[in-house]
């Protein structure tokens, strides 16, 4: 399996995949739309909050913000592996783009939770 990407490769793919600024992402994560998508453990919450179940994407968004606020030299292995995960998610998800206007879709909302605004593509 020795095909792990170098940090430089992950970094350049990350810069493309995460096209939202920290300010835009932070604002998005506070929105109802952001909290409405994704898989929470409870699954039955209209508020999206019961049982403290924050969705994977929403958690990831907060993690992305932490990483964005660090310098490249300060990133640790956990950061790098999350960045690789984000890149993989965004690439996979972009291939599933629905037809038509994507502005109000869960597809777009999920991507934005992972730091990618498809309206900017």
Describe the structure.
Helix 4 crosses helix 5 (77-94) and helix 4 packs parallel to helix 6. 52% of the residues lie in helices and 0% in strands. By secondary structure, the protein is mostly helical. It has helices at residues 7-17, 22-29, 32-36, 56-68, 77-94, 106-113.
Q: Provide the residue-averaged pLDDT.
A: 88
- Given the helix and strand composition, which structural class is it? mainly alpha
Helix content: 40-55%
End-to-end CA span: 32 Å
Please supply descriptive tags for the structure shown above.
mainly alpha; 121 residues
What can be said about this structure in brief?
The chain has 121 residues and is mostly helical. Helices cover 52% and strands 0% of the residues.
Which secondary structure elements does this structure contain, and how are they paired or packed?
Blueprint: H1 7-17, H2 22-29, H3 32-36, H4 56-68, H5 77-94, H6 106-113
């Amino acid at each position: 399996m020795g095909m792990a990407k170098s940090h430089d490769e992950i970094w350049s793919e990350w810069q493309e995949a995460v096209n939202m600024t920290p300010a835009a992402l932070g604002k998005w994560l506070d929105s109802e739309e952001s909290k409405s998508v994704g898989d929470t453990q409870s699954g039955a919450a209209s508020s999206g909050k019961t049982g403290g179940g924050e969705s994977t994407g929403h958690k990831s968004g907060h993690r992305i913000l932490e990483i964005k606020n660090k310098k490249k030299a300060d990133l640790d292995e956990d950061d790098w592996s999350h960045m690789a995960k984000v890149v993989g998610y965004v690439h996979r998800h972009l291939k599933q783009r629905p037809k038509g206007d994507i502005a109000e879709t869960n597809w777009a909302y999920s991507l934005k939770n992972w730091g990618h605004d498809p309206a900017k593509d």
